Amino acid sequence: MKTKFILLAGLIFTVHHLFAQNVRFTNSGVIEFEKSINQHATIKKAIARSGGMMGSSFDDFKKSAPQFKLLKSTLRFSGNKTLFAPVVETDDNRGMFGGSPESEQSNITYTDLSTNTFITEKKFFEETFLVKDSPRKINWKLTSEMRDIAGYECRRANAIIMDSVYVVAFYTDKIPVSGGPESFTGLPGMILGVALPHDNITWFAKTVTDRPIPVTEIKPPTKGKPMDNKSLLETISKVLNRWGSEASRMIKLLLI
């Protein structure tokens, strides 16, 4: 009986060891993300907030424009450094609310987790700002929910940022870099999916390419008026002050 137990334990250890050897951890590469904006839902909410009626123009828009606007971006990563950048759109499909934060994707974001450095080139109407600060601290709550994204098994985490923005993220520990799209970081692995359910916006990885990344491919942006997050908030708050109740929501989307 004792001999059988030892043999069984040895077999289990061998299978586990072989499986562990086949697990591939990616330390550098390129992730292609797709940002999806539910245009129909966003515009419907905007009309409701303004107290307006659902007119024929909105009905015409729903018939002529796709429900979801899709935007491409890439995240290059190597070690503890990441660079998130949009892929330039080939057509000018701005939709009914072109120019607003939810309809575009213009941030170029560099993060160095080893030095706690966060630099983003952020466009705001006709202005460009170069924001230098530390990465946003997010109080993530891990869950047991799992989801496959771009071939990686990912765990769900939830959080509230900027007091009221509900965030759902999915990360994989098979990419041991605590990064993610836009300003989302702080999980024990790479974030491959982000959803803002109340704002009808998502970012999900479509492909992950495992390859060495030269240092020339991960450089911080340099264009724009230098400032930190506090100065940026003060600046855009003054500009959007006349927007009334809509200003608060717009500011939060701009700061993501």
Automatic annotation (TrEMBL):
The keyword Signal applies. Residues 1-20 form the signal peptide. It holds the Pfam family Porph_ging. Keywords: Signal. NCBIfam families: GLPGLI (TIGR01200). This is GLPGLI family protein.
